[in-house]
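Instructor's aside before we start: the two examples that follow are unrelated to each other. I chose them only because their records fit on one page, so don't look for a connection. First example below.
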Amino acid sequence: MKHEIFGIGFDHDVLKASDLFDTIRDSDDEVILASKETYHHKEDDGSLDFDYKYVMHAENLYEMTGEAVDENKWGIELKLVPMPKSLLTNELSDTAELHDEDEDDVELIDLVDDGKCVQMGFETVDVSDGYDKVMPAKFDEGASVVETINAMRGFYLDRPWNRIGSTGWDILNNYVGNGKDFISAAFDRLK
């Protein structure tokens, strides 16, 4: 059986998302799963050293847009999300203040809600056959490619994601590295 998600195709059996991910939000229009494993990234020069998890974030596109073209469509993203303890002090305090909580109480879901993460993949899924029939299989496929994406994360982080050329590295440096604003980092490369 051929599978494909986030631009990666494979023939092997799919893994079970429930074995590799915990559900951290499940509502009618949004599902968020976080990897059970916490990963670690460290640059040889020590400039970027942080812990992170992968998150699969699925949302009902029709509920977001109200556009007829999005009826029976869900979007599923794979995100690399730094752990709260890895955030720079100012970023952690900003998140804590935004959620009206102590810094020690900031959780991964807060960072997802705030967008303090990097999109590693996105897929639009047609659920005309029913959410329960389609989406669990997509989550399993997503879980099956996480290790491949993680092994190639440098490639994914190199990609610009906006028209000024901000990359995943810029986002990570903004939140867990040198603190330089990701917009300024992109503009500096254009000089």
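Example two begins here.
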Amino acid sequence: MWKTKMRRLVGVPLLLIPALILSACGGKTAGQSELLLYEGNGEEDSAVSSSAVSGSAVGTDDVKFDTTVVRKTAYKEEINCTAELEYLDTETLIIDDEDAVLDSVKVKKYQKVKKGDVLAVYHVETSKTKLEKQKLMIDQARADYEVGLGNLNQQLSQAQKALSTLTSKAEKKIKQLEVKKIQKQISAYKKGEKEITDQERDYAELLKKQKKTPLRAKRDGVITETEGRGYVGEDIDASTEIVKMHGNNGKWILTVGGSETADLRYNMDVSVRLGKSAKEYDHEVKGKVISSGDITGQQSQNEEGDSVVYIDVSDKDKKKYDFENSNIYIYAVSFMVKDALVVDAEAVQQESVDIRNRLFVYVVENGKLHKRFIVSNYKNDKEVLVEQGVFEGQTLAILD
């Protein structure tokens, strides 16, 4: 057993110390009494994991505290979170029209669809004035084009007639070059008609879209999202996402998002559980973290800007179990200490000693509080693992 030592108070005769101690101790119940607060004697580093270090007594009035006990246990830092499927061949279907109104969504989440199936119905509400203005501009462009083409064709016809009347080889050669030049001009000019033709086609489609227009699937697949995007009966911006779907190749990974990603490290082995909850599950398979911020230096993010970590399972398990229709939970142990001394974080305090931050606790012993420096190898918001400074079963004060 470690021997306790008294440190003499400067300027106070030894004969007066008992009087000071007696005057500081009252008859109140534990936890509410006036206790003596002891500091270490400077030998804490060499006198660790034993009874509390005693020192000079310093009287304190109305010390209020709760207590907790140092416990030895197999400590595990556990990770529990939920996961979702993220398909690798996801496709988003949009309505790429201005002034569009969504009339209805024809599919539900997890519904299987085939290429050409109607996924949603919408219409475009374009004002009459805007339609008339657009039609006038297209008609004017068509008229200008026809006039310009007519002029070039007339020049070509005149040059060809003149060529047919010439007899001199030199004059013929010059006129032939003129004809070829005009022909090239006509060929280049006709390429500009495509833009007008596209405008005419778009206008015709716009007229059709004033009535109900179907949004169709471009391939076979399964619907993955329909909610929270375009709302029925409301105007939607151009390029608004209406539904998401994925193909039938079955390629997917698991994603964990938000604050739950902090303790999932790259290449970590995890348990993937399918069932009612993380503790009540029907199946458990092995998984592995395949992407996280601690390897790339930059956390991956989803479309909403939340941090995500990707987890994969074997192809065999993907085929064997129904991940699509199950609740998915991730369980892992970030680290474990077999025989750990664990202390409630509320009992641990910190102070600066010679520009170093040191942790300490107050050990409750014989009606007194004894200050004890400790060495910790891990801590979180609730608990502190102590490597040196206390032993199992000691009672610690949690000061108010």
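The radius of gyration is 41 Å.
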